[in-house]
Design a protein that fits this description.
With about 650 residues, the chain is of the alpha+beta class. The chain contains 24 helices and 26 strands. Helix 8 crosses helix 23.
Length: about 650
């Protein structure tokens, strides 16, 4: 019977090796040949190891007879050789045993699940990490498989998983949704490889698995933040654009109504921004309640603007819903702490239908915006349908005014440059500068870009402004005070410029002729501009980088889709949109988003610049997240360029502007 057992007792092992029991006990204590202890404390030795040692201890074949050497001396030499062989075997066996012990320790203490299966995918081994993943111990999972716990129909995931294995021989980062025995959702990433026998037949699978539920939930939250308004929780402009793009692609008809709260600035100024935010949340809830039984989706586009998307509703139905919204707003009483109730709220609503008032999303939203302003111009508190009559469009006088004004600005060179430092956060040293454009109007007043850039783009004049700005920067960089500096100068370029091949040729020729170090120039393209035409953006970046210029993606984070396309943009810097940076100290959602964004940038080897850094608490959080650079009023306000604060000089600690 003993011959059938996989192990020897100590007595059997000693007899097999021909050595005393005491020597075996001593070897065990010294770690030379370690025995396994049973529950009763008895020593047990592997039959394979003992038999191997017994064979290795056999007396070697006799050497050729040497008449000069006595017979006893030859026997002693043979015994000495056998002892040396036995000692080396023991050393090798002990090393193997120690290696196996280390391997088992690593496997059993790993946080990742390590597993093997048979050819049918049934578990044959699991380490202790399975308890956290499935809620069951290893012995309770033997004979089962991953897809016994699938949240979706088993055959769907099983088929996809096995199909990938058959095709590639391995699967990496296969994401599946499991439900543990206590009903808890688990998102699990699986790595697997096929095992074959000597004849190439599949004998099983082996691999690892990891609980990625937190990372998966964080990614979903980031996507939600990118497509929903942080204040009201309503879908935002990005979501509206996607919904309209889908409607256009399907050839559907419908309407969009844009609501702007009248005199909202008065509410903010007199009751405070907190009251204003509370009112916006209340209006969002009011609109949702009003249309909850109808096929209408409510959006917040920003500020005090809300939108209603009405699929299949045309002019009459859209106007009717708009009037209902104004009635609900007028009858709503908003309680202001300590000041009673704010009543008689009004709004202005513009309505445009598709595809009649726009064959694409941009045109449709532009026309509904015009209709909303027409409602304001006509006395507010009313619904206005988009009117094709150009004489009745609110923007006509504005466009004429700015067309004349911008032509005069360019002709008389009333373009003014300012700069704001880009600061290295670790030591608050200003290392780069962003160039900001202003214009001087005919009255000598400085005009900020928010007042003219949008009109300039629509008039095709932003391209000339971009060329003028870069030309002026090149002239400054040729001066002796900027020669040899290692600092870089960030210059914004508009969407209409980089998408115009003729402008790109002029721009390229101007840079090629400039006797400057092109690596000092960093051109900023907004995320929106980059995403509007990915291929055009890629080509422009490639042309300019061939000359040594660098690139930054500005206002990054405004659209979630850019996360996917980011790897296609060969940019050196990512500038985090200031709306996320400003509230870092108080808004956990913003912190989550910025941290994830930093992780993405770090993984793609891109440097991060945070905009709108306005207080020390925000700066401390950015440093902790690993953000390299910052820009904002905490360090300095924009100043005339080139008469600005010299770069490469430390700013005073704690300075506020």
């Amino acid at each position: 019977m003993a011959q059938d057992l996989p192990e020897y007792t100590i007595q059997e092992a000693a007899a097999r090796l021909g050595i005393p029991l005491q020597k075996l006990r001593r070897w065990d204590a010294q770690g030379v040949l370690v025995a396994r202890r049973t529950d009763g404390g008895h020593r047990r030795y592997s039959r394979e190891i003992i038999d191997g040692l017994a064979r290795s201890a056999a007396v070697p074949a006799p050497e050729k007879h040497d008449p000069a050497k006595p017979e006893n001396g030859k026997v002693e030499d043979q015994l000495a050789a056998a002892r040396r062989t036995l000692k080396e075997k023991r050393r090798i066996i002990q090393l193997l045993l120690e290696s196996e012990s280390r391997y088992r320790d690593l496997v059993e203490t790993s946080h990742d699940l390590i597993w093997t299966t048979d050819a049918l995918g049934r578990f044959t081994y699991l380490n202790n990490a399975c308890v956290e993943l499935f809620g069951l111990r290893p012995r309770d999972l033997l004979g089962r498989c991953f897809f016994d716990f699938e949240a979706r129909p088993q055959h769907v995931s099983n088929r996809r998983f096995l199909s990938a294995l058959r095709k590639n021989g391995e699967v990496k980062n296969y994401l599946t949704h499991l439900i543990s025995t206590d009903g808890t959702d688990r998102w699990v990433g699986i790595n697997a490889r096929v095992s074959h026998d000597e004849e190439g037949r599949i004998v099983g699978l082996r691999g690892t698995a990891r609980n990625v539920t937190e990372q998966h939930d964080a990614a979903l939250e980031i996507e939600r933040l990118a497509t929903h308004d942080g204040l009201t929780g309503l879908p935002n402009r990005v979501s509206l654009q996607k919904a309209l793009e889908a409607a256009f692609a399907d050839g559907e008809k419908g309407s969009v109504a844009l609501l702007d709260v009248d005199h909202f600035k008065y509410i903010n100024d007199n009751f405070g921004h907190r009251a204003g935010d509370q009112l916006l949340v209340a209006i969002g809830g009011l609109l949702k309640d009003m249309v909850k039984e109808e096929n209408v989706q409510v959006y917040r586009l920003g500020g005090d603007e809300f939108a209603l998307h009405l699929p299949d509703a045309l002019r009459g139905d859209a106007s009717h819903i708009g009037e209902r919204a104004l009635t609900a707003l007028r009858h709503y009483k908003f309680p202001v702490p300590g000041q009673g109730c704010l009543s008689t709220l009004t709004g202005s609503i513009g309505v445009a239908t598709y595809p009649f008032h726009g064959a694409d999303v941009a045109t449709l939203l532009s026309n509904v915006d015009i209709a909303m302003y027409q409602a304001k111009d006509n006395g507010r508190n009313r619904v206005r349908l988009h009117d094709h009559n150009p004489d009745d469009l609110r923007g006509t006088h504005k466009r004429v005014h700015w067309a004349r004004e911008l032509r005069e600005v360019l002709h008389e060179n009333r373009v003014m440059l300012c700069s704001q430092p880009v600061v290295r956060l670790t030591d608050r040293t200003a290392v780069h500068q962003e160039i900001l454009v202003r214009i001087i109007d005919r009255n000598g007043s400085m005009v900020l870009p928010g007042q003219f850039i949008e009109v300039a783009e629509s008039l095709g004049m932003a391209q000339e402004i971009d060329l003028r700005v870069v030309s002026n920067v090149i002239d400054v960089l040729q001066g002796p005070e900027f020669r040899g500096r290692k600092s870089r100068f960030f210059v914004n370029l508009s969407r209409t410029s980089i998408s115009d091949p003729h402008w790109v040729r002029r721009f390229h020729n101007m840079l090629a002729a400039a006797p400057i170090d092109h690596s000092q120039l960093v051109f900023e393209i907004t995320e929106t501009a980059a995403m509007s035409s990915v291929d055009v953006t890629q080509e422009f970046i490639a042309q300019m980088k061939a000359m040594g210029c660098r690139f930054a993606l500005d206002d990054f984070g405004a659209g979630f889709s850019s996360f996917y396309f980011l790897k296609r943009f060969d940019v050196d810097y990512l500038k985090i949109d200031g709306s996320f940076v400003r509230d870092l100290a108080t808004d956990n959602a913003s912190r989550l988003f910025v941290r994830a964004l930093c992780d993405v940038a770090r993984g793609l080897n891109k440097q991060v610049i945070a905009e709108w850094v306005e207080d020390q608490a925000v700066m401390d959080i950015l440093v902790e997240m690993g953000v390299q650079y910052g820009q904002g009023f905490l360090f300095a306000r924009p100043q005339p360029f080139p008469a600005a604060v010299p770069v490469e000089l430390p700013l005073q600690a704690g300075r506020r502007a």
